[in-house]
Every structure is written in structure tokens, then in C-alpha cells.
Amino acid sequence: MTETNKILLIDDDERSRRDLEVILGFLGESVVAGNSNGWLSSRDSDFTAAGLFCLVLVGRCRELTLAELLLQLHDWDEGLPVIILG
Description:
By secondary structure, this protein is an alpha/beta fold. It is 33% helix and 21% strand. The longest helix has 13 residues, at 14-26.
């Protein structure tokens, strides 16, 4: 990915989120991580949906249902690719 792109990592399991963030960072990817309930507030303050994120990785969802989270992501940017893990 290019330097301006980031991966949005959403996982309610803190350990899993941290592990995935470390692995992706080791691979040279820029990651913004948060949980399903606070993913919008955990993002960088200077990004826009269409401008920077090129992929969303979704891990465990406990705060919201997966359907609710996917609907929020679709409302935020309907063309955003999403990969659901696990």
C-alpha cells in the first residue's frame, strides 16, 4: 500500500487487536485500531473515509453486532473494502 493509505482495524479483543496491529506494522502497513463501539473516535483526526483508508479488517465484535458495525461502515463509506476475520 502507499504511504497515504491506512488499514482500519476493528477488534473488540484488545490482545488480538494489538497483535494484529504489531504484525501489520512489521509488514510496513500503517494501522489505525479501535473497538467496534469506538472505531470512529479512535481514527486519526486528519483523515477522511475516501481519502486514506483502503481496507477495513474486522475481528471480534462484542460491543455491536456485526450487522450494526457493517451498516456503520457502509454509511461512512459505501465503497470501503472489508475483510472479516474469524
